[in-house]
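ok trying again, last paste got cut off:
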Amino acid sequence: MQVIKRNQSYNAEQDQRQSSNRAAQAKKQDNDLRLKRAYGNSKVATLKRDEQLKNIQKQISLQQQQLRQLQTDRIAYKRQETEYYRKGKPVPAVLNDRLNYNEQNINTTKKSIESLQTTYRNTQTNYEDIINRLKAME
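nice, full thing came through this time. structure:
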């Protein structure tokens, strides 16, 4: 004589709880397949990451070079301004305009550098996640 095991009855609440897990798992699997199609393997993703980070680093270097030049210009403008003060002459409006414009450019360049550094960190983090997911699939 054989014993027949009974199946558990359908539980709608349990199915509802598991449906969100199944949906999340299906979405993750879909994203993983997209990554696989986009990069192929972790080595390709690593190369793309390095290329993008190198480009961002070049932009940061250019902005830093521009900032140094702007600061050098500011020193020269301030020297001219102090020379006028020392002689007791009024500072020309053109020189004041240059100082103001230079200060605006310095602030803009600093913000640009900060933005690029944030982009660098975000890109690095995103690619690390992508590479780790690709390695897990390999």
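cool. The radius of gyration is 30 Å. The mean pLDDT is 92.
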